[in-house]
Design a protein that fits this description.
Blueprint (H helix, E strand, L loop, with lengths): L1 H19 L2 E19 L8 E2 L5 E2 L2 E12 L3 E8 L2 E7 L4 E3 L2 E3 L4 E21 L3 E19 L4 E22 L2 E12 L2 E13 L4 E15 L5 E16 L1
Antiparallel strand pairs: 1-2, 1-4, 1-15, 3-6, 4-5, 5-9, 6-9, 7-8, 9-10, 10-11, 11-12, 12-13, 13-14, 14-15
Length: about 250
């Protein structure tokens, strides 16, 4: 009986210590996404090369993302990200274009829709942790849901894609002045079939013990070099603002 009681007490102490060293957090980020380039050829072997930055000029897109997470045992973190993105554009063609087997003749007024939604599950380990510096690295599983559509008064064609991609994840946070820090947060991977990069550089200001505001620049780039019959590469530049709340 005493042995069981001692075991229960040790377990409660362990759980209590674990709870004190664990915390959850929620990040919300919003801003504008600007197209740097967005080139595609679908099918990769027979479609026309199309630029959704030049053939249809895109408007700046409202972009937001939400990331929640849980840090435990002082150095381990699990993160879940939801990051939708839809960019629309319009223009008048100066040549015939073939996309997904449909031909859009020169002179056609064309509209485009480019959707690239990202969902990620990430594990990170903080291998450097001091009062002014934190460095972490890990792995992410990224589920992408993409759809590219071209439409005119007389025709419509689209191509969608759903795929799972592994990424290497890393973070560096340096508090160079009291309450003010620089954050670099990145996930990326390259292979013979394509690449993906998501990089944030932001200036942060701690508002309270639980809330931190940030302003920064985000780069999202990547694509597929003919894999699955699709050639598509795009780059987007973001101006972003966000807040992180710990609880």
């Amino acid at each position: 009986m005493r042995k069981a009681a001692r075991s229960a007490l040790v377990s409660l102490c362990f759980l209590g210590a674990f709870s004190l060293r664990a915390e959850g957090f929620l990040e919300v980020e919003a801003g504008a996404a600007f197209t740097g380039y967005n080139d595609l050829r679908i099918p990769a072997d027979s479609g026309s090369k199309i630029s959704l930055a030049d053939d249809t000029r895109p408007d700046p897109a409202f972009a937001f993302r939400v990331r929640g997470g849980y840090s435990f045992a002082d150095r381990h973190s699990i993160l879940v990200l939801v990051a939708p993105l839809t960019v629309r554009g319009s223009g008048t063609l100066d040549r015939d274009l073939s996309f997904q087997g449909k031909v859009f003749p020169a002179g056609t007024k064309l509209e485009s829709s480019y959707r690239f939604d990202s969902y990620r599950l990430t594990y990170r380990y903080t291998f450097v942790k001091s009062e002014s510096l934190a460095l972490a690295a890990g792995l992410s599983a990224k589920l992408r849901s993409a759809d590219i559509a071209l439409m005119s008064e007389g025709a419509y064609a689209h191509r969608d894609d759903l795929g799972l991609v592994p990424l290497v994840s890393a973070m560096a946070e340096w508090e160079f002045a009291r309450g003010t820090s620089l954050l670099v947060d990145a996930e990326a991977l390259a292979s013979p079939f394509g690449r993906a990069e998501d990089l944030l550089v932001a200036l942060q200001r701690r508002l309270s013990d639980t809330a931190t505001l940030r302003l920064g620049y985000r780069l999202l780039e990547g694509g597929s070099d003919g894999g699955g019959g699709v050639y598509t590469f795009a780059l987007f530049n973001y101006a972003t603002a966000g807040i992180r709340v710990r609880f």
